[in-house]
Amino acid sequence: xxxSQLIINLVPNMLSVCLVSKNQVVQExxxxxxxxxxxxxxxxxxxxxxxxxxxxxxxxxxxxxxxATVYYHSPxxxxxxxxxxxxxxxxxxxxxxxxRETVGYNCAVESTPxxxxxxxxxxxxxxxxxxxxxxxxxxxxxNRCHLKSASFIPMSTAIMSTAASIATRSDEDTAVFYLGSDxxxxxxxxxxxxxxxxxxxxxxxxxxxxxxxxxxxxxxSSGDDDQEEDxxxxxxxxxxxxxxxxxxxxxxxxxxxxxxxxxKAVLPILAPVLQRMCIEIKQTFRFGLNGQPMPxxxxxxxxxxxxxxxxxSLSQHIEMHIKISPAAKTYSPSAIVEPGMPEWDIIESQxxxxxxxxxxxxxxxxRNKLSRLAIAGAVSAGVFLxxxxxxxxxxxxxxxxxxxxxxxxxxxxxxxNQQVESVAQFTNLMNDVSGLVVETVKQTPQWHxxxxxxxxxxxxxxxxxxxxxxxxNGESRIGINGLAVSVTEGKATKELNEFISSxxxxxxxxxxxxxxxxxxxxxxxxxxxxxxxxxxxxxxxxSYTVFLPENKN
Length: 553
Hints:
The chain is α+β, with helices and mostly antiparallel strands and 553 residues long. It folds into two domains: 4-357, ATPase, nucleotide binding domain (Nucleotidyltransferase, domain 5); 447-537, Threonyl-tRNA Synthetase, Chain A, domain 2. It is built from 15 helices and 22 strands. The strands form six sheets. A five-stranded mixed β-sheet has the order 3-2-1-4-8. Strands 11-10-9-14-15 form a five-stranded mixed β-sheet, with helices on both faces. Strands 17, 18, 19, 20 and 21 form a five-stranded antiparallel β-sheet that branches. α6 crosses α7 (231-248) and α6 runs antiparallel to α9. The two termini are 49 Å apart.
């Protein structure tokens, strides 16, 4: 259980850092980013975010940070939801195998359960993958800013997990529409499990951009807009647009701000975005439920749920009763981490989130783990040696006192010690020699007894053409090639069986196996079976093993 956590949120319009200790937010800081530079930021390996992150970290009162969990908006994320009737471990392996067919082996892959049946192995698994170069860019970014990586969690994946959790806790007639800054998720669950869950790359930031377009158009019409707008002006316009969206929302009625009629200037630009949201919701239920009854209610949650009149504008195009999550009343557009957001889940659990990591980060974690184990082993060994040294010192002091009290016997004891050392040296020599012999010759196969008796078993009916011996893989055997001959094929077979039976009864034979046999004719009046036998010998352990230390009482 993690006592402290560092949560970094990287989205197109904001970089934020939150330090959490014992389920409480200690400090949070953020910087606004220009969303128009988002693609360029990833193209150069997010090097341009080094200075902003260092600037944020310098504001914290503590200069020691735990491992960082990064929530990021990924431009290369691939995620799929699969249903399985398997154990959690098997479901994870099956999901990873499925998505590997799409993304190959150059991506990091992970899974998280969205729903698990309480009475069976049925489950819905979210399996997600991201490119290794994206994760390496995040890993290098943290390293350059002197931070350690805990995990990298795509924001879309985190929102899907949060939306699924809300849907499974809601009543059976209520679906969920989670509206995040860049991703929205539609989910519906009933008594049979998670029925529908789907993400769309549309969030309330699209509504902010609509406000920005309207403000830019007004500036251009008044002649106040420069042809080359710098980053600072773009950030200021984005900040103003965000404030206006969360203050005035969807301007369905007459609403004027600074003499600007928002209904006329902004609503026509917002309308296509709202229409797309409605289409996403309706199409998700139409094709996802496969003829099942539609839910009657839609719970609007996430930071976007606080936008005024959003629920009313959506309800005009969706035949569902739209409710707003109670948690939405506490959201603030400048908030970094609050209840109901995906980042809050790991704060409540007080544990490190399970996300993606590049190979370099996994190798670093393994090295750190091995180092900690080595240090722990060294400390344990030091403690043990210290205790052993203390006991030895006490015993030596006691022995010295005894020897001083009985000085007359000191000479005899010294002589006895010399004799003991001589015997010990001889014993070690015997152990070494015995061990060398046993390692060189493991066991003695009983070749002589079998070979000497083999001649007595041959007859006119059994003709041995080849005998060979081999010792491999700890087994000693004799290979026999020859013929079983008689006037009829049946008698030849009988002679062969009797020969095998006689071999099996021989002393020193463990078993006999018959290889391939071939029927052949011999002359005009004889029949035979060409045979191949393997006679496995009993091996006798060397007597030298009695000298080895483990055989001593």
